[in-house]
Amino acid sequence: MTQQTTDERPGIAAAIVVHEGRVLMVRRRASEGQLSWQFPAGEVEPGEEREAAAVRETQEEAGLTVEAVKLLGERVHPKTGRLMTYTACQILGGTAHVADTEELAELAWVTLGDIPEYVPYGLFEPVQDYLDGALSA
Predict the structure, then answer these.
(1) Domain Nudix hydrolase spans what residues (predicted)?
(2) In the chain, how many domains are there?
(3) Which residue range forms the structural domain that includes residue 29?
């Protein structure tokens, strides 16, 4: 009999989707601790690449077709203890909306200056660095 530990849970892939000077954020129906607003994200399925999971989750949650542009980084999330990967994605098609009404309450396109209102504890440094460049251009 094996016990499942947090280390054996699948990693979480997050999509960092920038469009017209804003980044896509979603609010889950059930908060994960202090995490209320976050990026479209979900578990990496067996055999799935992290970047592919970020693309799939964006489609499932927000109805957007995106492609992975760059893997920004990976860490164990300080609030959830889950392995997180962050992938910059660009939109190929669709209009952002709450596609997964069971998981999401709402979504927002957030400016660089408004991110602290949505994520008061700060972002993972490689994600913040990417957004500093992408949203101030």
Answers:
(1) 7-132
(2) 1
(3) 16-134
